[in-house]
Amino acid sequence: MSSASLYKTFLWEGAYYGMIAAVVGPVTGYICTVFVGAATTDSLELVAIPIVPILEATVISILVCLIATCIPLKKIARMSIVESIETVE
């Protein structure tokens, strides 16, 4: 595996984590909002889905996951893959 393909693999992994968080986050957030509203009013009522904040949070979560994967990639780019496999830490 070349270092370029390793770099792409890590970036795609970060993008996938961001996409999963972008799907799971709004769903669980909406469920929590409905339950908190039900606890305060003693009745279960569905609220309007906030589309714009969800889209903003989606973009932010994907960017944060990509940035979080870029930090270790800078360290990986400086080291030799063969030497790091041979070295026992």
UniProtKB/TrEMBL annotation:
<feature type="domain" description="ABC3 transporter permease C-terminal">
    <location>
        <begin position="1"/>
        <end position="81"/>
    </location>
</feature>
<keyword id="KW-1003">Cell membrane</keyword>
<keyword id="KW-0472">Membrane</keyword>
<keyword id="KW-1133">Transmembrane helix</keyword>
<dbReference type="GO" id="GO:0005886">
    <property type="term" value="C:plasma membrane"/>
</dbReference>
<feature type="transmembrane region" description="Helical">
    <location>
        <begin position="46"/>
        <end position="71"/>
    </location>
</feature>
<feature type="transmembrane region" description="Helical">
    <location>
        <begin position="15"/>
        <end position="40"/>
    </location>
</feature>
<dbReference type="InterPro" id="IPR003838">
    <property type="entry name" value="ABC3_permease_C"/>
</dbReference>
<keyword id="KW-0812">Transmembrane</keyword>
<dbReference type="Pfam" id="PF02687">
    <property type="entry name" value="FtsX"/>
</dbReference>
<protein>
    <submittedName>
        <fullName>FtsX-like permease family protein</fullName>
    </submittedName>
</protein>
